[in-house]
Amino acid sequence: MPSSPAITLLGLGPGDPKHLTCEAWEALESAGEVWLRTAQHPAVAGLPDGLVVHSFDSYYDEEDDFAVVYERIVAEVLRLGARPQGVVYAVPGHPLVAEATGPEILRRAAKLGLSTRVVEGLSFLEPLWTALGEDPLPHICIVDALDLMMAHHPPFPPSHPALIAQLHSREVAAEVKLTLMAVYPDEHLVRLVHAAGTEGKAVEELPLHAIDQSERIGLLTSLYLPPLEANTAFEDFQELIAHLRAPEGCPWDREQDHQTLRPNLIEEAFEALAAIDADDPAALREELGDLLLQIVLHAQIAAEYGEFTMSDVLLGIHTKLVRRHPHVFGDADIQDAEKVIQKWERLKEAERHANGDEAKGLLDGIPAAMPALAVADAYQKRAARVGFEWPEIKGVWDKLEEELGELRAAETPEAREEEIGDVLFVLANLARWFKVDPETALRQTNAKFYQRFTAIEAEAQRQGRALSDMTLEEMDVVWNAAKGHSAGR
């Protein structure tokens, strides 16, 4: 006859004692005692007569951190399991579904050589689907409320439904709704499911912003989050692009490669900048979509060529950002923004050495294909981060005067070209001192010139005259009127 296991993990079902399995009932009847993760569960009232019942509820009262509670429970169950009589450890639902202690006990017991047995239990999920009248397939995301409340953004695609389990208090619900409202509208209708698997089950429909106002929230509460409309998730967009590139997709999209799409990437980036300059959120939303199209297309092409996948892209930038923010994700204590930038440059230098790129300098990561004024700004910002700059702005003004003098003295086309370049370079540095982006400033000036000059063209057309027939004085009148109009706005 086989010996009894050292540790029996037993599921008590979702709540009502009638949901205890035959196997669980037999195991409890034959056990002299049982240890419960919590006695705050309806099934406890229906346990076999004569069973000695212990619980770990005192741990919850003694500790503020659930992780500490679970660690203490795991350690104690392992200690009890090492006794000659072993231990029966019972948890709500199924021992391995939404249960932090069960899987960890199995892992550690295996390392310690302790035998284990899992007695299946009906989880909270089956009666929950019954209460909702929903089928979890073809896809649903299941998330722990305690993890979600600590997040800043929901970790699942909004075009799929989601189930947030263990929403056991109004305080947890308040934090969860703040995370969800980063994506979902305040009025998005959701359903709170209370006490599924018991006689007191109830489903409450209400807007997302009101979930923490429910008086029914308790230990057996879950939140069902219906999806947003289709095609609102990043994965949906990846599927669309992969479809366009598939054999049954679009002939034009299938023909593209990294080189043929290069002009599109540059164009879409500048169109996004134009939307930012115009302070037009609707246009920016559209242009960011166009820019995202180019990024996902390049990632899809790379995946087809066996170069890398979108997962590689995301993992790479995620790892880089975490590594370069030790003051957020590590032990470094940096509060000043300028010191953050200096630390950033030191980390990048260390990365170059670690990757065998010692030959690359501080300026090598700036693409030469960027607009020249933007490159000048980027060069001087990076040089300043390591201390290569004037101690005060007077040095910049003096340098500008020096370069203007050299420009006035230049006598050949080649010399004038060089000196104009020097003047522009110093102006880019002056803009940096004033915390002005020179590329943006010049684009705004270009836009002003366009608006005022086109006003002159419109006036000439209104008069039925050719633009070249207008005198400079007539043009100045219209120019100044347009200048005053834009200033008045």
Q: What does this molecule look like?
A:
By secondary structure, this protein is α/β, with parallel strands linked by helices. It folds into five domains: about 5-120, Tetrapyrrole methylase, N-terminal domain (Cobalt-precorrin-4 Transmethylase, domain 1), CATH 3.40.1010; about 125-225, Methyltransferase, Cobalt-precorrin-4 Transmethylase, Domain 2 (2-Layer Sandwich), CATH 3.30.950.10; about 235-325, Helix Hairpins; about 360-435, Helix Hairpins, CATH 1.10.287; about 440-489. Helices cover about 55% and strands about 10% of the residues. The protein is built from 19 helices and ten strands. The strands form two sheets. Strands 3-2-4-1-5 form a five-stranded parallel β-sheet, sandwiched between helices. Helix 10 (about 260-275) runs antiparallel to helix 11 (about 280-305), helix 16 packs antiparallel against helix 17 (about 415-435) and helix 18 packs across helix 19 (about 470-489). The chain is elongated and about 105 Å long.
